Amino acid sequence: MKIIHPAVRILVPAVMLATLSLSACAGMGGDRSQRIAEKAQQRFAAADLDHDGSLGRAEASQGMPRLAQHFDEIDTDHDDRLSKAEIVVYLKQRRASR
Asked: Which stretches are annotated as coiled coil (predicted)?
């Protein structure tokens, strides 16, 4: 019969528990991220009154006022419209700068 060191008896279950906990947390974060993305899509769609896939100044002011405050900064192609892609780039840059 093989003798197992007492530290191994504690360490192995602890590592397994930590791994399971991290997996569960990662899964929850993904769900949360998914919910946030879905809510953002819904808000964008509701703000896009003419359904052209972008937001003009008035649409942004009315439906997404925080974005409207940074309209010129977000509108990188200077077409006076905010595309989803421009908004995503802006939000990623803001997140990275924190």
From this structure: none
